[in-house]
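Q: Entry one of two.
A:
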Amino acid sequence: MKYQLQPETAILDENGLTASAGWAIVYNVNSQTGEYLGATYQFLPVGVGLPAQSYLDAPKKVDDDHAIVRQDDKWTYPTDYRGKTIYSTETGAESTVKNIGDIPAGFTLLKPNSEFDSWNGKKWVLDKDKQHQYEIAIAQSQKSQLLKEANNEISNFQDAVDSEIATEQQVEILKKWKKYRFELNQIDVNTAPDIDWPEKLNN
């Protein structure tokens, strides 16, 4: 034929060496991970083979949840969740997937609905005991803070009474603070969050 309208296609022999020089589409992979990098045109002179980490057979298309990886001289298509947020089924703590493959054991793509959720093997469920223990801890902290404040006020007014310098108004205030402290001490924090806190005094 007088004119060559298409570039010559390289032909490789059974040993993987170029028997007839020409162009070839080669599919390149990462030398460390085997992950597919992309296709390029490569001119192959006679007697040479393919560049390192390159192959003639094309991989198939995949969706975003899969990767293309060359393994054992064939294309494989493992799951790929890189960049996605996963959650520890033990603590609910979140992290980001960095490697190709299935989600690591002990993690899920499902986000817990609250800090009190526990993993039941398939989904997150509200751990009412965990939530209640948290509410008890909050109530105990609040009770301790209010008692500390009441004790400080009582100590101050009691000093005035003991020193016989307290006014009648201060004596009445002392009685109210003691009543308030008594009511605080009657509170059972185990009933949290259903606690009716006594009204705080304003001197």
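Q: Entry two of two.
A:
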Amino acid sequence: METTGTFDSLVRAEFRPHGTYLNTAGNGLLPARTVAALQRAALLRAEGRPLTPLYEDVEAARAAYARLTGVPAGRVAAGASVAAHTGVIAAALPAGAEVLTAEGDFTSVLNPFHVRGDLKVRTVPLERVAESVRPGTALVAVSAVQSADGRVADLPALREAARAHGTRTYVDFSQAAGWLPVDADAYDFTASVTFKWLLGPHGAAFLTVPEDFGGLTPVLAGWVAAERPWDSCYGPVAELAHSARRFDLTHALFSYTGLRRSLELVEELGVTAIHDHDVALADRFRAGLADLGHAAVPAPGSAIVSVPGLGSRQPGLSEAGIEVSDRAGHLRAAFHLYNTPADVDRLLAALSG
């Protein structure tokens, strides 16, 4: 972004929230351009026109996500959920392998390892993940930013510890990609949904893998995972895609059509500018909370602020036109590009009443 004015004008052109929306950690708002693309896609279906443009949108969205996360598009698989991507990684581990996870992390990052039944899943507090990697740890799996309270993982320390012990790394960017600069190339596997900070519709998610696929088997592969998908609609796939597309799941075309436009906006604004905007608002809220005598969960540098003991205020705030979340008894506020200092002050005023 060149100027704050340009940032603000782009945002005003795309978003007109009803009330005060501070729940991006649950669902991001859709930009106007995304809504328009979804409407056009629906008309194609309604009128029986060719859907070729929608398949082109999948590849454009894949390329945009690759740019945002710092990897070649050939290392990005397009899917539908983090849980499905985690399942592919879990399926590749040998029986008895140790997986190190963070206490209270989001279920989609954890559960596929647990349901295997023959893996050793070890759980430690988030701040102890890096120091808990040990010889024999096959994989460490963690969210870059914790969904429940916004704590940011010490990923550089995790990466170094994993390298020292020959441990694979799996990072979920779902609560990070879109406001926090991320580098998927620094980890073996990463995944992210796109309906939160990346402002897309539900039904689209990405997985990044190493050039050599990191030992993964495309156990969920269908026709779209073939090198020549339209020649692979019947019978077993004769030749899997030579890229990470071999891990694609059947594309939710409308979702990817909308997502393409959402990612275009994120790139136009710039993740660095979005980060600075979001964190400044979160810090304003933290300071205001302290003035009111409330202490947020320590999460320096996060766009998510979680306040213990105030989760019960969520229904009343919603009735007042202020949308936040109740997570584990905490009031969770998430600040994104369409929010303003006035939104922060309105929430603080409501909490002081």
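A: Comment on entry two: The radius of gyration is 21 Å. The chain has two domains: 4-30+269-352, 42-268.
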